[in-house]
Amino acid sequence: MSTKVKGLLERLRDKETVVCAEGYLFNFEKRGYLRAGAFVPEVVIEHPDLVRLQHEEFVHAGSDVVQAFTYYGHREKMALINRESDLEDLNRKALRLAREVANKTSTLMAGNICNTNIYNPEDPTCEARIDAMFKEQIDWIVEEGADFIIAETFTDFIEAKLAVEAIKKYGRGLPSVVTLAWHKRTVNGNPATTDGVVLTDCFQRLEAAGADVVGLNCVRGPATILPLIEEIQKIVKVPVAAVPVPYRTTKEQPTFQSLTDPTNGKTLFYAELDCAHSSRSDIYEFGLRCKELGIQYVGLCCGNSAHYTRALCEALGRKPPASRFTVDMSDHYVYGKSEKLCKQYIKQGDVHEFIAGN
Asked: What residues have CB less than 8 Å from 288, skipping those under 6 apart?
C-alpha cells in the first residue's frame, strides 16, 4: 500500500527538481553480491536486507525516489543464469522493498524496465517478445503500487518506443521517465541510436508517443552527457532527464566502456574502472550545471554511491540528512584551524609539509 506523497508530474509541473539515485548493480557487484558480466540482481532474493539498506542510504543522501532494483531482472537475464523460475519472485520482492522504504521515508517509488538485449530488426518476432517481457514487469509494477515507471538504457529507438507503448497499454496511467544510452553512432555527423535514428528525432518521437520525461542515462559521464542534454532540451517540451555515470569520460573517450588506463593504455571496463571515478566536486559541478540549465530530473547511474548523491543534492541547494557529515577539514589535526586542536600540530609546519607534500 502506497503512502500519499506529491506525485512526479505534480513536482515537475511545479518546476521542482526530482533526484533519483541509481547505481545498484555496480554497488552490489563491488560488495560481492552479484556477478559482473551477467549483472543480474540476485541480491534481491538472497539478501533483501542489504537492498533495503541501500534504498535507505540513497534517501538519507537526498534521493527523492526509491527505485525498485529490477534493472536486468527481466526474463532474458534470468534465463541467462538459469533462474527464470525466480522471475516473478525477484520482481515482486524488489518492488515491495522499494515500496516499504518509500512509505517509511515519504518518497516516490519507481518501478523499472530496461533494455531487453533481444531486439533484432531482422527478427520479425522480437517486438512481440519484447512487449510480452515489458507487460509482465509492468503488471507487477502496477500491482505493487509504484508511483511511476523508469524505462532506461535503451540504445535502439524501436525498443524505447516499445517501452513507452507498453507503459501506455499496461501501466494504468502511471507516468514514465524514458532514457536512452548513447554510445558513439552517428548519422550524417549527428548522434544517433543503434538502429539509426538521430537522437533529436528519437526524443521528439518518444515525446509524441506519450513519454512524460525523456533524456539520457548511463554510459556517459557528466562531461560528455551534458552537451547532449542541452541539445535535447531545445527540441522537446517535456522535462528532460540527465542520469550520467560518475566517471571521468572525455571527448576522446566519451563512454565508460571506452576509457583506458593512463598508465598502460588498457581498457578499464569493467573491473579496472575504479581509477576513472569522478570526484565529489565533479558531481557537485554537474549538479550546478543541471540547475543552471533547468534540468528537472537528475540522478546518477552505474558507479553511484551515497556520497555522490549527497554532493549532487547539495549542488541543488539541498541539505539532506547526510549533509550533517559533509566533509569539513577544519577539525583535521593537520589541515584544521580549530582552536581546540593541539597547537603543536598546527604550529609544526614540517608535519603539514610532510603529509601534504607542500
From this structure: 315
CA angle 207, 209, 213 (to 5 degrees): 35
Alpha-carbon distance of 304 to 52, in angstroms, equals 16
**CA atoms of 22 and 61, how far apart (whole Å):** 12
**Cell 560488495 appears where?**
31
Residue carrying C-alpha cell 549483472? 39
Torsion of CA 230, 184, 306, 104, to 10 degrees: 80
pLDDT at 14 over 80: yes
Region class of 182: left (phi > 0), else alpha (psi between -120 and 50), else beta: beta
Q: Which residues contact 192 (CB under 8 A, 6 or more apart)?
A: 185, 186, 198, 199, 202
- CB-CB contact of 232 with 199 (8 Å): yes
87 close to 75: Cβ distance less than 8 angstroms: yes
**Alpha-carbon distance values, 62 to 17, 222, 322 (Å):** 12, 19, 8
* Other C-beta atoms lying within 10 Å of the C-beta of residue 339: 7
> Which residue in this structure is represented by grid cell 512509505?
103
122: cell is 531482422
DSSP one-letter string for 209-249: HT-SEEEEESSS-HHHHHHHHHHHHHH-SS-EEEE--SB--
How distant, in Å, are the alpha carbons of 258, 266, 277 from that of 261?
10, 5, 12
Q: What is the pLDDT of residues 129-167, one digit of tens each?
A: 999 999 999 999 999 999 999 999 999 999 999 999 999
**Helices then strands (H, E): number in the chain?**
14, 10
The grid cell for 259 is 576509457
The rounded distance, in Å, linking the Cα atoms of 140 and 126 is 22
- pLDDT-derived band of residue 249, with 50, 70 and 90 as boundaries? very high
Contact criterion met (CB below 8 Å) for 199 and 193: yes
Q: Which residues contact 331 (CB under 8 A, 6 or more apart)?
A: 338, 340, 341
Question: Quick one: cell of 278?
Answer: 569522478
- The residue type found at 54 is Q
Rg value, the chain, Cα: 21
**Which pLDDT tens digit goes with each residue over 285-308?**
999 999 999 999 999 999 999 999
